[in-house]
Amino acid sequence: MENSLFQIQRTCEECSFLCVQFFLKGKHVPIEYLEKDKLKLSIVLDKAALKELNAQLEPLHLKLVEAKPSFNIENIKASLEIWLYQPEVSIEYTCAKYLCKSFKRTYKVIRDFFEKETETTISEYCIWHKIDRAKKMLEDPQKSIQEIAKELNYNTIGLFNRQFKRKTGVTPKAFRASFLAQK
After folding, report:
1. C-alpha 96, offset from chain centre
2. Is pLDDT at 17 greater than 90 in this prediction?
3. Rounded distance, CA 104 to CA 109, Å?
4. Could you give the residue ranges of the DSSP H alpha helices within the chain?
5. Model pTM?
6. Which of 8, 51, 113, 151 has the most neighbouring CB atoms within 10 Å?
7. Do residues 47 and 1 touch, judged by C-beta distance below 8 A?
8. What is the mean pLDDT of the chain?
9. How many angstroms separate the CA atoms of 121 and 95, rounded?
10. Mean of pLDDT values over 150-171
């Protein structure tokens, strides 16, 4: 579970959010915010910790359930950035599986929505995002092109060079040289 956002499910209308706040503070669980029926913790809970907390909340007729992130274009892009730049996430999940897991929807629904809203594919968006980040990184002459490719999670320098040239018309080396010449 990579979420710290939870929804409070009440089985009794008399239960209040103050109960949850008081209970969690007593357990030294840091709360980032509490509003309406949503609670964001300052820490990430694993499934075992959530199960233990819920067992302790049960006598209060309260339960925490993992909240689904809102299904909108900004959240999809944010999820794509997590997938693109956090190697532990991109190693464990394909892009499609990560998005489906994050939004609890089929990839077709996510893909169609994304393409309708952005007029581009998820794959093209990811490539452009990486190329834009690469351009900024290439402005630093201290960082090698190999290091940049690795930091952007490219498996090979060749793939990085081909995608960069296809999108910009120049190689990363030529882009850097041009940028440094203008300085």
Report:
1. 13
2. no
3. 10
4. 17-26, 47-57, 73-85, 87-92, 95-103, 107-118, 122-138, 145-151, 157-168, 172-182
5. 0.61
6. 8
7. yes
8. 84
9. 13
10. 94
